[in-house]
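Data card: per-record layout.
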Amino acid sequence: MADSYKYFRDNVKQYPIDSNGINERVSRIKTRSVKGESKLYALKLALSLLDLTTLDGRDTPFKVQQLCAKAMRPHQKLSGIPQAAAVCVFPNMVREAKKELKSTKIKVASVATAFPAGMTSIKIKTDETRYAVGEGADEIDMVISRGHFLSGDLKFVFDEIVAVKKACGNSHLKVILETGELDTYENIRKASMLAMYAGADFIKTSTGKVQPAATLESTLVMLYAIRDYYLKEGRMVGMKPAGGISESKLAIQYMIMVNEILGMNWLTPEYFRFGASSLANDLLMQITKQLTGTYQSADHFSVD
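The structure for this 304-residue chain is written out next.
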């Protein structure tokens, strides 16, 4: 991995990003819309790409059970509704989620590495990662050390990702950049490339605890980085926008963007996720409207 960092340092081209170009492309994407059968397909696809998440100090086993029930059967009456991609919980709730989802293909993800700030030692971060994996986590969502990154200590951040990836064993690693704290598009691209060269299976915009969280603009920069990395290295890396995505129309805009930059091969649970639990109910409302012609009120859906 030392060679990988040296390669990243010496060969990954850094350049100014045309912010006007990014903003103009996003503006065009916001004008897109899909209707009819295509819209129903897109809504169901978005539901299948959800990481339903509960990351609250008040979490209990019962709350996790409820979330898992919703992931397995998002709507109690409609047929043909896909299950969610994953349930994401704190490490101490992984075992409960794993038990509830054992008969399904739904993944159990866990935040780790002192989420959301990441302000602790690498030993504690890797110990927490190993604990979550030992409890049954299929995926780990880690946060990078933004202070080290912004101060220019990229080797520290790279080595930290490498160490957490090793601690993951066979579990997949999603690396959270916290784009709202990285200040510039150039930093977002640099952090994306660094994470991928350090072994990330996914790169993720945000913890959802910092504003702004996911934006179409920051996601577009990350998608371009994923494309460039794939063209150079031949390895597909996933993308996860997280935080602030609560409406179906916005989710579809994200998927249009992924399709245009990376192609439909990325629009699967293996390579694209939404970290947006509140999105689930809006998707279900829109799917119901497409199938029945009428909206159900919000109280027809669970809060979780």
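Known properties of this structure: The beta strands are 51-53, 86-89, 107-111, 139-143, 172-176, 202-204, 238-240. The two ends are 41 Å apart (CA to CA).

See the next section for split statistics.
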